[in-house]
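Quick check before the chapter quiz. The format below is the same one you will see on the exam, so make sure you can read both the input and the output lines.
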Amino acid sequence: MEYADLRILEAVARHGSMNRAAAELHMVQSNVTARIRALEEQVGTELFQRTSRGVVLTAAGQRLLPYAARIGALLKEAREVARDDGTPRGPLHIGTLETTAALRLPAALSAYTRAYPEVALSLTTGTSSSLVEDVVERRLDGAFVAAPVQHADLTEEVMFREELMLVTAPAFRNPDDLGKQRDLKIIVFRRGCSYRQRLENILAQRGIQTAQPLEFGSLDAIIGCVAAGVGITLLPKAVVLPAWREGRVLAHELPPEQARVDTVFVRRKDMHLTSTLTAFLDVARPSPLKLVAGE
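Here is the expected output.
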């Protein structure tokens, strides 16, 4: 089995078509079909089910498919390690929570790109669970996520400490009044967001029933809906502070055990720490005093 065969497997699976995969790979369809059949002979089972509309992975094909991405990532890492002479350069794929991107990273990203112009830095936002999965599967070099993670394949470093606050429309002067609200909605990021899970737990502990959550992909949309009285949310104090000062929303303090959350940077334990990533972490880390103060 060769990596080239696994690349063909991935392309065919993604397109659901031998013909479209061949076009992407700059091959003729007959060669793609022959390579897939040869791969099936090597593993001793069918990898695709042929249909009138194209092809779909069999159960065996689905089990084999993740290895294409893993092997490709390992080969990419091997090339980068061989070329790593101590000068940060090349691609760097970082993941982050939306709140961290808005609150903590702008200055660091600006400083890093100025200092290391040969690095092609890309930033992906997502929920903690999706970002952890992307790091585990080597689609990201590392990510800023909410603690705790405690994954056997990952190492984590505390980078920032946040104070979470319950955010409501100005009309809700007392959080205890939320229990009197019929069809109370929570305004959150999609499932897998750690803040969403915390908010659901906090409300459950107070015996507050909620309606179906409203999911949004941006902070502005969430804060705007809360300000309009559509529902409530849970966000870091520093993120909601501008809208709070403007009187658009009201932020309520929570007990320390509910309010405090660490943002950690996770990366694979078995992945070489390149000069490019080392330099990024050096720039992104806050000073010890700022970390303790939660700034």
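If your answer matched, good. The chain has three domains: 3-81, 88-160+261-293, 162-260.
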